[in-house]
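QA checklist item 7 of 12: single-chain prediction sanity check.
[x] sequence parsed
[x] length recorded as 105
[x] structure emitted
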Amino acid sequence: MKTFIDLVGASGATYRFRLVPAPAQLAASAGNFAFLRAGPGQGALVCIGTALSLSDAANAWKLAIDRHQANAIYVRLNIARDVRLYEHQDIAERHAPTMIVTEAD
């Protein structure tokens, strides 16, 4: 699996995400996450989300495995909430993944 992936949003902006080898290694900082079902090339984006603590993405990860056969976790550290939510929306508009997770207020 690639260490980094670039996801392009509807605006044309590119966002770089870093591979996290296991859910236990998810950071406690805020950010965006993407779950992929890896295959030839980049694979299929099955979920995108935002979290106040990326460690919270572990709950969605279990669901993404069961329902969508996800097998790769990627994260983008993004402390500023407005930026995090904008990027999340931009990616969702372009890719329309089957799972979308937004942080609780």
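[x] summary fact logged: The mean pLDDT is 92.
[ ] second reviewer sign-off
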